Amino acid sequence: MFHSEDANPVGPIRSARQSDINLLANLNRPLMLWSGGNPGVTAEVKSAEAEGLLIDVSHSVGAAFYFRDNRRAAPHNLYASISDIRANFTPPGAGGPLPMFTYRKGDEQLPPTASDSVGLAVDFGSGGVVQFVWDPQAGCWARFQNGSPFRDADGRQVCPQNVVVEHIGYGVSEIDARSPKALTVGEGDAWVLTAGKVVVGHWKRESPKAMPVLTDAAGSVVRLTPGRTWVELPEVGAPVTPVDPGAAAGMLASR
Fold first, then answer.
1. 4 pLDDT band (50/70/90 cuts)?
2. Exposure string over 115-125, b if 16+ CB within 10 A, otherwise e
3. What three-state secondary structure class fits 110?
4. Cis omega before residue 12 (within 30°)?
């Protein structure tokens, strides 16, 4: 999701999943870029567009604005320019999306339930562990995957100002039993990393069109640092643990 800034280009763009519709439904008819999908998922995307939940800009709809990057192997090489897509597919008079989260203003402080943190590790199973480590010089959470820096196409390490970890359920898609279905409407445990602190609390989202509400253990809304936010959606029960300070320092030093 690119909520308030463009990315040119963006990719790799892959097939749609049933979970995507609820993930996007609260963003005021966002432009959904995707390529490929089984007939059931394709029908659900078209139905969601008819209901006003999103705008379908699949490769089959906007092929002229997609391109292949031959430096990568297909199918992981399909890209598009967000600015070109927005210029050609945004309906007249369309407004922007509402803020996904709430943010602190000026010198507003975090709730007293916030505690110092050097980072968190999220274990997704099957050998996949993601770590976010606080970088005090850059003022953001450096992302590592199995201890290695996670970089974008230009070689820059991903380092958002906020990280939101939500434990969610995963069901089985009614369309394809091989495909998991993320259950992003509901509630569960949450961890919020912001400004060198961690807040352990709760997330709740009452409907597909509702924004998630993040609260701390005392029930107060957690306000984020203005800037980029990275969201992790591990399954309920997946381990979320503090990063050891020595390991955090080692990862930062290894970049």
1. confident
2. eebbbbbbeee
3. coil
4. yes
Say if residues 217 and 228 touch (Cβ distance below 8 Å).
no
Q: Do residues 16 and 24 make contact, with C-beta atoms less than 8 angstroms apart?
A: no
- Structure-token pair, residue 97: 């999306």
**Partners of residue 229 on adjacent β-strands:** 162
Q: Which amino acid, one-letter code, is at 41?
A: V
211: which 2 tokens? Answer: 């924004």
Give the residue carrying structure tokens 């199995």.
146
Q: Which residue shows structure tokens 């953001």?
A: 140
Could you please state the CATH topology (level 3) that the domain comprising 115-253 is classified under.
YerB-like fold (3.50.90)
The whole-model pTM stands at 0.94
Q: Residue 240, SS3?
A: strand
Using an 8 Å Cβ cutoff, are 68 and 46 in contact?
Answer: no
Radius of gyration of the chain (CA): 19
For residues 141-151, give the mean pLDDT: 96
Residue 198 burial (10 A CB sphere; 0-12, 13-18, 19+): buried
Paired residues of 214 in beta bridges? 203
E-strand stretches of 59-108 = 66-68, 78-80
- Bond into 242 cis (ω within 30): no
Where do the domains of the chain lie?
19-89, 115-253
Residues facing residue 200 across a β-bridge:
191
Residue 62's nearest CA partner among 84, 30, 92 is 84
